[in-house]
Design brief:
This protein is an alpha/beta fold. It folds into 3 domains: 213 residues, FAD/NAD(P)-binding domain (3-Layer(bba) Sandwich), CATH 3.50.50.60; 111 residues, FAD/NAD(P)-binding domain (3-Layer(bba) Sandwich); 114 residues, Enolase-like, domain 1 (2-Layer Sandwich). Strand 12 and strand 13 form a beta hairpin. Helix 1 packs parallel to helix 9 and helix 3 packs antiparallel against helix 4. The protein starts with a strand and ends in a 7-residue tail after the last helix.
């Protein structure tokens, strides 16, 4: 029967569509269900891709405005936000259509609609007109991703009180924007609107930004963002947000009990994301969730029901598109009888501001908590020839290696192209490399990657250029 499948993936985001393609490559009759109307999930539609487009375009705008200091005279520079947004949407459309082509190429049946369980082998799909079809699946993979978390009692209108989704679609540059939360997403979007002319304020409950990141990198990052004009209000708790006409007032209390109100045109609430598990009827079929509404799985991504699996943001671990992709491939290979796995110690994280920030493996704080003795190697981009040549010298590379055997345990970068440079460390860690291995690998000159080599040399206190 045409509506019977060996595997069905609910969710067409980075984890889901990659999983579906890999299943099909392995000879498994596969279907993929996506409710959004276009594939790619949050990442391609309202996350990674459109935000990176705006980050790039806003940085280009900022650079052009400051070219005269580098000997390039230009006329008056104007912002056409409408055209910038259309350019962003073009990138999204091209990529989402590309994913649809990949499913077709790999003979994955694609259903547009909302998927939910009628039983552990029956899946209901309702389209935009509420028409329902039921398909049958031997094995089902839940890959429904996550949604922005809201503050208690505060809802998004995506005009004045916005999530990351609304922050990508503003029709004018707000005179003042308040970002609630000093994490990856809030700082990226704050950077975009700051460069385009908004007065951006960040309110953070903790005493530092980017929780979980290496503290030294986090502190340096905040210093640089302050120089760029972003204002930070640390250790402030948001008590309430009140909409007033086309503006908002954010009431806060600091750790000393002092109260302060912030008024702005737009408030971006960016306090994290939560798993998108509602509406799947998981309770009906008996799939276990944890206390954060994440699907509970074993090391092979299997739930408590032997034919239902889950990957990506709906299970524990970092909510990152590339983590979901790797899990999608791993679970597909496991279903096919192979040995798929994900090495969670080598999943990089990147913040795409200017400069970029990237991290992989353990931080110094984590190693100290684990009582692991380690060595540190650091190298500043101030001493990197390529960075000097193009006047992009902010930041440094830090490599952490085990004290006795020199094995690389983690690396943390802030600086130009950090998101690309981190891949070298990822490969090194996958192969169990030492800092000596990286130090003795010839790097092209002049390149930013030489900062990686110098940091590796610095682990043994023998950096050449510092």
């Amino acid at each position: 029967m045409s509506n019977k499948f060996q595997a069905v993936v609910i969710g067409g985001g980075p984890g889901g569509y990659v999983c579906a393609i890999r299943l099909a490559q392995l000879g498994i009759k596969t279907a993929c269900i996506e409710s959004r109307g276009s594939l790619g999930g949050t990442c391609l539609n309202v996350g990674c891709i459109p935000s990176k487009s705006l980050l790039n375009l806003s940085e280009e705008f900022h650079k052009v405005k400051n070219l005269s200091s580098k000997g390039i005279e230009v006329g008056e520079v104007k912002l056409n936000l409408d055209k910038m947004m259309r350019n962003k949407e073009k990138a999204v459309t091209v990529l989402t259509k590309g994913v649809e082509f990949l499913l077709k190429k790999n003979k994955v049946t694609y259903y547009k609609g909302v998927g939910s369980f009628k039983s552990k082998n029956e899946i209901s799909i309702k389209d935009a007109n509420n028409n329902e079809i039921v398909i049958f699946s031997e094995k089902t993979i839940i890959a429904t991703g996550s949604v922005p978390a809201a503050l208690p009692g505060i809802s998004f209108d995506e005009k004045t009180i916005v999530s990351s989704t609304g922050a990508l679609k503003l029709d004018k540059v707000p005179k003042k924007m308040v970002v609630v939360g000093g994490g990856y997403i809030g700082l990226e979007m704050g950077s975009v609107w700051s460069r385009l002319g908004s007065d951006v304020h960040v309110i953070e409950f903790l005493d530092h930004i980017t929780p979980g990141m290496d503290k030294e990198i986090s502190n340096e990052f905040m210093k640089i963002l302050k120089k760029q004009g972003i204002k930070f209000h640390m250790q402030h708790r948001v008590d309430k947000i009140i909409k007033k006409n086309s503006s908002a007032i954010i009431s806060t209390t600091d750790t000393d009990g002092n109260k302060k109100d912030f008024d702005c045109e737009v408030v971006l609430v960016s306090i994290g994301r939560k798993p998108n598990t509602q509406g799947l009827n998981l309770e009906k079929i008996g799939v276990n969730l944890d206390n954060k509404n994440r699907v509970q799985t074993d090391k092979n991504f299997k739930t408590n029901l032997d034919n239902i699996f889950a990957i990506g943001d709906v299970i524990s671990g970092p909510m990152l598109a590339h983590k979901a992709e790797d899990e999608g491939i791993a679970v597909a290979e496991n279903i096919a009888g192979q040995s798929g796995h994900v090495n969670y110690d080598t999943i990089p994280g990147v913040i795409y501001t200017t400069p970029e920030v990237a991290s992989i493996g353990k931080t110094e704080e984590q190693l100290n908590e684990m009582n692991i003795k380690y060595k540190v190697g650091k190298f500043s981009f101030m001493a990197n020839s390529r960075a000097k040549a193009i006047d992009d010298t902010q930041g440094f590379v830090k490599i952490l290696a085990e004290e006795k055997n020199d094995k690389v345990l983690g690396a943390h970068l802030i600086g130009p192209h950090a998101g690309e440079l981190i891949a070298e460390i990822g490969v090194a860690m996958e192969f169990g490399a030492s800092s000596e291995d990286i130090a003795r690998t010839c790097h092209a000159h002049p390149t930013f990657s030489e900062a990686i080599k110098e940091a590796a040399l610095s682990v043994d206190k023998r950096a050449i250029h510092s």
